[in-house]
Design goal:
The protein is mostly helical. It is built from 8 helices and 3 strands; from the N terminus they run H-H-E-H-H-H-H-E-E-H-H. The model has no long low-confidence stretch (mean pLDDT 89).
Length: 159
């Protein structure tokens, strides 16, 4: 079977180093919000919410609205989430391995934490990169204040 080719935009977004950066941004924001590390199963919820452009565009700018309120307003994202999460599971695993291998994240007692602060999102490498990082931080803040089982249930998936 010949290798599959992706368009350059998909290759850039599905780069494990970029995924690792987004996950580290999310974990760092969650840790700052809850003052405790993020449960590792929640990492599998971040990229399916942040990478698809249509979902990312509908995410709020501030975490003042809860995930449940956002899903009530945008039920089509909840309906599409299970398929997106399943298709991004291997990519999330690769991104987690990359983050752990390069010291961007650590696992402690079943939780993820960032030993150093990820670089802030700027528009320098591209506005889409900065937007993804900002939204990853937002999702991290959401996940910090919600139980793992509740987050999975709201999104219609199982760990």
């Amino acid at each position: 079977m010949p290798p599959t080719r992706r368009v350059p935009e998909a290759q850039a977004l599905l780069n494990p180093a970029f995924g690792a950066y987004l996950l580290a941004s999310s974990v760092h924001a969650a840790t700052k919000t809850a003052l405790q590390p993020l449960a590792w199963p929640k990492a599998f919820l971040v990229l399916p919410l942040v990478l698809p452009q249509d979902t990312r565009a509908d995410l709020p700018v501030k975490a003042s609205r809860s995930m449940a309120a956002w899903l009530t307003e945008f039920p089509h994202h909840q309906a599409a989430f299970a398929d997106r999460a399943a298709s991004l599971t291997d990519f999330t695993r690769a991104s987690l391995r990359t983050a752990l291998r390069h010291g961007a994240m650590e696992v402690t007692e079943g939780h993820l934490r960032t030993p150093r602060i990820p670089r802030p999102a700027t528009a320098a490498p591209g506005e889409e990169v900065a937007d993804c990082a900002r939204r990853a931080s937002l999702v991290g803040r959401w996940l910090a204040v919600i139980d793992t089982a509740t987050a999975y249930t709201l999104l219609g998936v199982r760990p």
